[in-house]
Design a protein that fits this description.
The complex is a heterodimer of chains A (597) and B (210). By secondary structure, chain A is of the alpha+beta class. Chain A has helices at 96-99, 173-191, 195-207, 241-258, 266-271, 286-299, 303-306, 326-333, 342-364, 368-373, 375-391, 398-404, 406-409, 424-440, 446-449, 456-466, 475-487, 511-524, 538-541, 547-554, 558-570; strands spanning 3-5, 22-33, 36-37, 44-49, 52-57, 65-69, 73-79, 87-93, 134-136, 143-145, 217-218, 225-226, 277-281, 453-455, 492-496, 502-506, 574-579, 582-587. In chain A, helix 9 crosses helix 11 (375-391), helix 14 (424-440) packs across helix 17 and helix 18 packs across helix 21 (558-570). The radius of gyration of chain A is 32 Å and the shape is flat. Chain B has two domains: 29-133, Arc Repressor Mutant, subunit A (Orthogonal Bundle); 138-209, Winged helix-like DNA-binding domain superfamily/Winged helix DNA-binding domain (Arc Repressor Mutant, subunit A, Orthogonal Bundle). Chain B is 35% helix and 12% strand. In chain B, a hairpin with a 4-residue loop joins strand 2 (81-82) and strand 3 (87-88). Classes of the chains: A alpha+beta (597), B alpha+beta (210). Chain B: Residues 1-20 are annotated as: Disordered.
């Protein structure tokens, strides 16, 4: 249950879970199981997110893509590479019981059938901060214990912090978060069972030898049925897992010769028990990947999801929360807070809210790490500000709406620092996928609003706006990324009109479809509604349309409408009339005259 | 010459240069299709359009017994000017149509007449754009004449040119009122074929078929 099937977005990137953020991307990565290469998983992109390590194959992305949940990872190991051997990062899975626990994130709940699962030791202690974690008061330098319920991953400005035991000053949040994280990372190596033990546990499971149905290990020397969690035989003291290791090797050899290389169709892949999985970095980038992987393992963002919502304390000084629902139930909470009604009450509420905002912003920007911990609040705040400013002078324009969504889109974007060592092509291809996702995202519906087609320049402007002014994409990179759509087989395509105008449209929108829709529309105009103003037979010929009308009708921009009309003319479906009132396009009766018998 | 017909499809009364005037000319329906008066830029459409124009011009000229067109003047005639539609072919486009008709692709149905020397192929028929419209080519005229002579048993008889084009006997024939230049051109083809002989001098030629 170590490798999970991976859902991909339309752009063939891993679709992120809620709250999940992308940390790093590296291309030219291969997968190993133990010492062996996994066939068909040898050239792909590795995505590191806050929750998972994902492998997306370059050739068969839909088929050969797997994800490893970081919560299942016992520890990562780094191998720097030697001569022709590329650098590798090894991910050791947690012992099995652990693996099958807490799979609220996993799409397929694991089955707990195999007996060898019981080999696994009792679950490692839940990742709560160890009682030894301390923070040093910045005022009096007294070592205070970090409260046992304090979790650095979920802590924010509203988490109550006990004051220093010696001087009684409440420490800054960052300070405690740092202390907790340091304590955790120090504890990390000792927290879990020894690595070779984990290996043995999983190895024994695949070997099947020496284990009984009850999950006992029979001693190779005296055949005593030892309890699964024992390392040495209770009777004769012989080591139990050197034995399993040896057998494992033998078993491995046999298995290999029978089926060279485990094939990994998605369903069996989930049932396999992996000793460990290695990511081989053939294109570099392993150092940053490892660095960020370690950080992600320490931060344990995935815990956020199952964690109960953080209770929001209401300090007596200022009302937190939204301040709207609070008036009623607040009175009992704060005896000193008088119930103020009317304009004074509103004013006071506003004042309190501003104070609160100030506090959030103040603590958030103190330090980069603090910004990360309180990112959620800051984003919420930014969105609130955006919507407030939009309420002002006719903020109804679509671009504004898109721009206000920008903060929430922050997690989606690929930025240059997420990518491996200066690899330009990887950046461009990631940007390309990013764009495709952005365009096909139904909640935004960018392409739909533009009638299914928009110019590249417009897209560039909207895209950069929605990035909210950070990590803007240069026009050159943008065009390169757009050119990549075809190569990456994404559902978006870039089209160059005769005039050189570049437009973006869905892959399913072909010229034939456009021509058909144009003709269908022109046929609607045959209705003899106001035929008096026409000097020709409207019922036969319909009437001509300008690019302007077409743009209005299909929601295109005028430039696009013009190009589409000329494309249709080129194909022989339309013909033109250059009149005093401009260029009009007609159904092509010159070739197919309806009057001809 | 302004026509005021309510429907574009209604026959438009016309008076050609050499009128016979038997009934009004029935324009094709494409004539009332506004884009028809714009030469199309797309090749396939353009070819089809030029062919339609060519046949329209030929039919029009056959109906009105027109042998030559002077484009500058003809532009205001119903042929090129659909007044009910208020659309007209521009001089440039009309030239393009005629030019196309002069090519083999257009079936050699027209020929520019240069201002100075008649019958000599000019580039653009002079500034006025004068041209032959061959709704019957000279070869076809020659055959028609031969057939007429054969039908009426006039072989061996000497006929004057006037007799052929203006006499009562030929009233019902297609070549009645034919342009003398075109007639002599057609007759010379007959001579080349060895079917006729031309006598006499300028202005009083006679022809004998055998």
């Amino acid at each position: 249950m170590f490798l999970h099937q991976l859902d991909l977005t339309t752009a063939l990137r891993p679709s992120l879970l809620p709250e999940e953020t992308l940390l790093f991307v590296q291309d030219a990565v291969g997968l190993y199981e133990g010492k062996f290469k996994i066939p068909q998983y040898q050239n792909g992109q590795a995505y590191l997110t806050s929750h998972r390590v994902c492998y997306v194959d370059n050739n068969e992305p839909r088929k050969n893509s797997v994800a490893i949940y970081l919560k299942d990872v016992e520890r990562p190991d780094f191998y720097a590479g030697f001569l022709k051997s590329s650098a590798k990062i090894t991910l050791f899975p947690k012992p099995l019981k652990q693996l099958s626990h807490g799979t609220s994130i996993a799409s397929n709940p694991p089955e707990r059938a195999s007996p060898q699962r019981s080999l696994a030791p009792s679950p490692a202690p839940a990742p709560a901060p160890s009682p030894s974690a301390t923070w040093v008061c910045p005022i009096c330098s007294f070592s205070n214990p970090v409260p046992s319920n304090f979790d650095p991953a979920t802590a924010n400005a509203r988490t109550p912090l006990p004051p220093c035991l010696a001087c009684g000053i409440t420490p800054p949040l960052v300070h405690v978060v740092k202390a907790a994280i340091t304590a955790m990372s120090n504890r990390q190596p000792h927290g879990g069972p020894p690595p070779d033990y984990a290996t043995a546990a999983t190895a024994g499971s695949s070997a099947q030898v020496g284990t009984t149905g009850q999950g006992n290990i029979s001693c190779p020397r005296c055949t005593f049925q030892n309890h699964a969690s024992l390392n040495v035989c209770e009777i004769c003291g012989a080591s139990l897992h050197t034995m399993t290791d040896k057998r494992l090797d033998m078993a491995k050899g046999i298995e290999r010769s029978e089926s060279p290389g485990p094939s990994l169709p998605p369903s069996p892949a989930q049932d396999r028990i992996f000793e460990c999985v290695k990511l081989s970095f053939r294109g570099g980038g392993e150092k940053i990947f490892f660095e960020r992987l370690k950080n992600a393992l320490v931060q344990r963002k995935w815990l956020l999801q199952s964690a109960p919502p953080i209770p929001k304390p209401r300090p007596s000084s200022g009302a937190f929360d939204d301040g709207y629902s609070s008036t009623g139930n607040q009175t009992p909470d704060d005896p000193d807070r008088k119930r103020v009604v009317g304009i004074a009450g509103l004013e006071r509420r506003g004042l309190e809210q501003r104070k609160n905002n100030e506090a959030v912003i103040g603590t958030a920007f103190e330090d980069l790490e603090a910004l990360m911990t309180s990112a959620k609040e800051v984003i919420a705040l930014a969105e609130q500000f955006a919507s407030q400013t939009n309420l002002g002078p006719n903020g109804s324009s679509e671009a504004n709406v898109i721009a206000s969504q920008s903060a929430s889109a922050l997690g989606l974007v690929t930025t240059k620092d997420m990518l491996g060592s200066g690899s330009e092509s990887l950046y461009v291809s990631e940007l390309s996928r990013n764009l495709a996702e952005y365009l096909t995202d139904d909640t935004r519906g960018i392409l739909r609003k533009e009638g299914g087609i928009m110019t590249l320049v417009d897209l560039w402007a909207v895209f950069n706006r929605s990035r909210g002014g950070v990590e803007l994409v240069s026009p050159a990179d943008f065009e390169k990324a757009a050119q990549m759509w075809d190569k990456l087989k994404l559902p978006i395509r870039l089209r160059r009109f005769k005039s050189g105008l570049l437009v973006v449209q869905g892959r399913d929108r072909t010229d034939e479809k456009t021509v058909a829709s144009l003709l269908a529309w022109l046929r609607e105009l045959h209705a003899p509604s106001s035929s008096s103003e026409y000097t020709w037979d409207v019922t036969v010929y319909g009437r001509g349309v300008t690019a302007q009308e077409t743009a209005e009708r299909f929601g295109w921009s005028v430039g696009v409408a013009n190009e589409e009309l000329e494309m249709a003319e080129e194909s022989g479906a339309l013909c033109r009339e250059q009149g005093l009132d401009g260029l009009r396009f007609w159904e092509n009766w010159i070739i197919n005259d309806p009057a001809q018998p | 010459m302004v026509t005021t017909s309510s429907s574009p499809l209604a026959p438009i009364p016309t008076s050609g240069a050499t009128t016979e005037g038997s009934g009004a000319f029935q324009f094709p329906r494409l004539y009332s299709f506004p884009p028809f008066f714009n030469i199309q830029p797309v090749l396939s459409t353009r070819a089809s359009q030029l062919a339609s124009w060519s046949s329209l011009i030929q039919e029009y000229c056959r109906h009105h017994r027109i042998y030559t067109l002077t484009l500058v003047d003809a532009l205001s005639t119903p042929l090129f000017n659909n007044s009910s539609l208020s659309r007209r072919l521009s001089l440039r486009d009309a030239r393009a149509v005629i030019q196309w008709m002069t090519t083999t692709e257009g079936g050699n149905r027209a020929e520019w007449i240069s201002a100075g020397n008649k019958k000599v192929k000019g580039e653009e028929g002079g500034e006025a754009g004068k041209c032959w419209i061959f709704w019957k080519k000279p070869e076809e005229w020659a055959s028609a004449l031969e057939e007429w002579v054969d039908r009426t048993g006039q072989k061996g008889v000497v006929l004057t040119l006037y007799e052929i084009t203006e006499s009562d006997a030929t009233m019902k024939e297609e070549f009645y009122g034919m342009d003398p230049d075109l007639l002599s051109r057609s007759l010379s083809i007959c001579v080349k074929r060895g079917k006729a002989q031309i006598f006499g001098g300028e202005g009083s030629e006679g022809v004998k078929f055998f």
